[in-house]
């Protein structure tokens, strides 16, 4: 008896069709994978730092994606080419994802992140300068715009679907930034971090006023100097 053939389907999360003869199309195909890469970065940063701010940003990102899921199945907008991609095209989930990420990150590095002065032997550490934070935020916006443009280049979305995605992602980021600021102001985050599950997960809240890269390096540098002092005796 012949085996029944198995019907296989593509994993659409990472399946991107592009024109191999066009360098712009090739670049666009790689840009289409950025949301998945950012989710991996979110997970890695959260696991490595256990920072509540990273968890909050990720929670807002996932809520924004859930909104996109609902809207797509409500609006049922067609894609430019029906043979490209499964599901509906309105609004663009890539554009919405990247807009949320860029706007929230930009607001966070410019408005919320205020590392305090840390005394060092050579002087005072002042953290990342404001203009450097601005450059970082601008780079995030440029990257988000590039991803949105790639969706049009690859014919996965009409331009207006990308614009709507950008608008929704921006609105989600602004709204969630205000909500998290309120939660911090009214002490909700402090209460949350005192809960047993948060204690068990070793959740912490240092990113607002501490540069974790510098703090970790300073501890290492202090230990290194002590070891050198012992060897020189």
Automatic annotation (TrEMBL):
PANTHER family, per database record: DOLICHYLDIPHOSPHATASE 1, PALMITOYL-PROTEIN THIOESTERASE/DOLICHYLDIPHOSPHATASE 1
Q: List the GO terms this entry assigns under cellular component, sorted alphabetically.
A: endoplasmic reticulum membrane
One of the entry's Gene Ontology molecular-function terms is:
dolichyldiphosphatase activity
- Reaction catalysed by this enzyme: a di-trans,poly-cis-dolichyl diphosphate + H2O = a di-trans,poly-cis-dolichyl phosphate + phosphate + H(+)
Please tell me whether the keyword Transmembrane helix is annotated for this protein. yes
Q: What class of enzyme is it?
A: hydrolase
Instruction: Supply the name of the protein.
Output: Dolichyldiphosphatase
